[in-house]
Description:
Layout (H helix, E strand, L loop, with lengths): L3 H21 L2 H6 L9 H15 L6 E6 L15 E3 L8 E9 L5 E18 L14 E7 L18 E2 L14 E2 L2 E3 L4 E8 L2 E9 L3 E2 L3 E6 L4 E7 L3 E5 L1
Parallel strand pairs: 9-14
Antiparallel strand pairs: 1-4, 2-3, 3-4, 4-5, 6-7, 8-11, 9-10, 10-12, 12-13, 13-14
Amino acid sequence: MKHPLRVLRHACAALALLAGGLLALSPASAQNDPTAPQRQDLQIVQQTAEQFLKAQTAGLPGSITIQTDPIDQRMMLPACLDPQAFMPNGARLWGRTSVGVKCVAPAPWTIYVRANVQVISDYLIAAVPLAQGQTISASDISRVRGDMSALPAGVITEESQVIGRVAGMSLRAGTPLRMDAIRNQRVVQQGQSVRVVSNGPGFQISTEARALSNANEGQMTQARTAAGQVVSGIAKAGGILEINY
């Protein structure tokens, strides 16, 4: 019969060997194994998306807050040398949006990080009801402050973009003014007598002509001179057709 103390020593030695084997197979040990595949730090991916959004929104007016959704930690991606962020086609720069982060080497992959970009800024609204075709003056508009990400695209933020232009549709008081709802004022009528001004290095020539179509300020239009020549130029206030060489 074996001595009880000797049996106990053998049992302890066996347990020590088993514990050592389990330690060798632990995740920490696998991470230190140079032959084991390295995994991408998902925190770096999220930071790459945040830094990209900060750079893209740096020129926007107002106060900007960026929040990215956490990435599922169960996602296993090969380590990337240089993750690159990009804006997917059709994605908005503010509001609820997505940012793509891709890897080229050593193993290509692409994931999309959900984000919310809030832009608090001043914008313009109609202070009074505006009728279609009405020329907008300073008293017709008001400046308010709000979340631009909750508004339609193209909301106007500068008075210079509105004053002197024409409402392209009827607008109720309080409606945010958008670029697609405002147009330049008509300055040339079809059949109207216009003055064609040709500008070039060191010279300016002026002649009379008749407009062949209606044109708003800044639009390209055509006119026929008394000699029958058709010329094209930019319509200006006061019935002027400007040609620059």
